[in-house]
């Protein structure tokens, strides 16, 4: 269970980092750039702890899928970016794929 907490925190930090990557405007804003670097470093540090027990492919699939959903929500609410129906369907398929892996795959049971 502790490893999934590490994974959840890694996802959160990665989403913050990606949001600040956008806000850094090509690394031209120092504060936003520093926040990006610190948050991304924290994300990878936490991910290394998660993959001590969770298989790396499974952890990365969860990290990617949840990160995509979170950053899409941040894009919508913070940056006023919208997604069209094909983008939403694609994201939904990614999430469904991760659910299938976690519910049915023997690889996910570690």
TrEMBL record:
Transport recorded as keyword: yes
GO biological process assignments: glycine betaine transport; xenobiotic detoxification by transmembrane export across the plasma membrane
Transmembrane feature ranges: 33-51, 58-79, 85-104
UniProt name for this protein: Transporter
CC annotations in GO: plasma membrane
GO terms of molecular function: amino-acid betaine transmembrane transporter activity; antiporter activity; choline transmembrane transporter activity
UniProt keyword annotations, A-Z: Cell membrane, Membrane, Transmembrane, Transmembrane helix, Transport
Top-level division of the source organism's lineage: Bacteria
PANTHER family, A to Z: MULTIDRUG TRANSPORTER EMRE, SMR FAMILY PROTON-DEPENDENT DRUG EFFLUX TRANSPORTER SUGE
Alphabetical list of InterPro entries matching this protein: EmrE-like, Small_drug/metabolite_transptr, Small_multidrug_res
Membrane-topology annotation of the record: Multi-pass membrane protein
A matching Pfam family: Multi_Drug_Res
Subcellular compartments: Cell membrane
Record's keyword annotation contains Hydrolase: no
Family the UniProt entry places it in: Belongs to the drug/metabolite transporter (DMT) superfamily. Small multidrug resistance (SMR) (TC 2.A.7.1) family.
Main location: membrane
């Amino acid at each position: 269970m502790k490893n999934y907490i590490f994974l959840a925190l890694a996802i959160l930090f990665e989403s913050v980092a990606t949001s600040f990557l956008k806000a850094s405007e090509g690394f031209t804003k120092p504060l936003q750039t520093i926040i990006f670097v610190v948050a991304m470093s924290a994300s990878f540090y936490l991910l290394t702890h998660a993959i001590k027990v969770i298989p790396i492919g499974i952890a990365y699939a969860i990290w990617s899928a949840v990160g995509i959903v979170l950053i899409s929500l941040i894009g919508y609410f913070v940056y006023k970016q919208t997604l069209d129906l094909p983008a939403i369907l694609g994201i939904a398929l990614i999430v469904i794929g991760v659910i299938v892996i976690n519910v049915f795959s023997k690889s996910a049971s570690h």
